Amino acid sequence: MQTPRATAEHSAAQTPPAAADQTPWWRDAVCYEIYVRSFADADGDGVGDMAGIEQRLPYLADLGIDAIWITPFYPSPQNDHGYDVADYCDVDPRFGTLADFDAMLARAHGLGIRVIIDVVPNHTSSEHAWFARALAAEPGSEERDRYVFRDGRGIDGSEPPNNWRSIFGGAAWTRADDTHGQPAQWYLHMFDATQPDLNWHNPEVGDEFEAILRFWLDRGVDGFRIDVAHGLFTPVDLADTATGDEASIFHQPEVHEVYRRWHRVLAEYDGDRMAVAEAWTDSPETTASYIRADELQQAFNFHWLLAEWSAEAFRDVVVQTLEAVGLVDASATWVLSNHDVVRHVTRYGGGETGLARGRAALLTMLALPGSSYLFQGEELGLEQVDVAPEHREDPAYFRGGSEGRDGCRVPLPWAGTQPPFDFGPGSGQPWLPQPAEWSALTVSAQSADPHSTLAFYRRALAMRREVNRGLDASVVLLDTAPGTLGFRRGDGLVCVINCGGQPARLPDEAGDVVLSSSPLDEPGTLPADTAAWFRAATATRPG
Ligand code: NOJ
Hints:
GO terms for molecular function: alpha-1,4-glucosidase activity; alpha-amylase activity. One of its GO terms (biological process) is oligosaccharide catabolic process. Keywords: Glycoprotein, Glycosidase, Hydrolase. By secondary structure, this protein is of the alpha/beta class. Among the domains are: about 130-190, Oligo-1,6-glucosidase, Domain 2 (Oligo-1,6-glucosidase, domain 2), CATH 3.90.400; about 460-535, Sandwich (Immunoglobulin-like). The protein is built from 13 helices and 18 strands. The strands form 4 sheets. The chain has an 8-stranded parallel beta sheet. Strands 12-13-14-18-16 form a 5-stranded antiparallel beta sheet. A 3-stranded antiparallel beta sheet has the order 4-6-5, with no helix packed on it. A hairpin with a 5-residue loop joins strand 5 and strand 6 (about 185-190). Helix 1 runs parallel beside helix 2, helix 4 (about 205-220) packs parallel to helix 5 and helix 10 packs parallel to helix 13 (about 455-470). 1-deoxynojirimycin binds near residues 83, 191 and 227.
């Protein structure tokens, strides 16, 4: 694979200016995830694209975010919607061209928005040139050594080499044919069979990914979201594991050396370039091991996303997260939704209750120190869509590994009273059907309503910018009513969330209301399913 180099005019010169106080921008940024095929479609083919993103950037600037993370847009057969990359240094024609990417990046930077792109180092697409060469080569060849090929077990090698399971369901191995068309060696794929795992023990793989990072850094991107960051290495002995699942296979110690190398690469560039790990872990401590001072800048805090709707669960995650990131002097991140999970309004019960809780959880995370990641459409209060079987596209659904992720990936409703809701020009329909009820939830409908979820997100993000300025990162938990979590952030802000089923008495530390996720009708109390920010009262609780 020849990695093309960017030319000099693609330098990072246009990167938005650094904050005056020298704090790296990402330490407290709000970053908005764009699932590229579902955000905005400029050419009317029913699939989102670069030009669509560019056209809608003013909307994002107005929303008040600091950065966007764009999911993979590289040439790909799209078996896993771009997480199966056939060429890491180009744009898939469905999404545009490199020139369209550059134009989008320049426009984003012009609006003060940073751009994070996805890098997918755990596996390539089976349509990648390296894999085609590996299949055409003999067992034991250099070409095969870029992937994980092994002989099978049992008579004629017809059993997979071990008991590992794909995260998408089924065996993590597929048997390839030899050059005469006879079933021969097996290759490892922790996801779909069209996503063969790379062999990170082969130094060529590391060199290639350094070149890929540099290709995009030279073009001016501000950072990377690292797909399956915890999965690059698997145990070398390929031994059976007790459960065969990824928990006992991933998090191999060698992966940290890769991120130390990437840290050094990022540090060579100006503008506080960064990387955020997608690493699913069993504890905030393990998450923190990816963000030590000489490794990655951030890792998604999935513990916040996975917490059930309960003050105790939220409290535990806040305490453990801040403790863990404190130990490595990193900043925390917070996230409620992304393109792999059921949208949080639905997780929290759906309907009005789910929406009220979703708004409350958002306000709580925005009050915490660190940065927050939003998923497109959550600012509209969108719920998970029940996608009919004939429209499903997610390989995890077909392999039986999950109930499917299509339901959170339905294209955004922008305007109008019926699908496609201005997702693309004309009346052509998007790649997944949108529910008719979304007519009340379009960006245009919600922009006209000061009580809408969109208006609330805009207020919350604007207020966060104002409040965050000058607040230190300290968090002090307050002694609050049962079913609630309250904390003081720095010396200026108090946040309380009520997850109990009843209105709850506010703590004495809660002074004037700054913002609430639902109306506060009765002074001194916080309604159920509500969070609010207050100025910290100077008076403290007696005793
Ligand atoms: C995590 C991505 O977020 C997900 O969408 C993808 O299917 C897997 N990694 C495999 O790349």
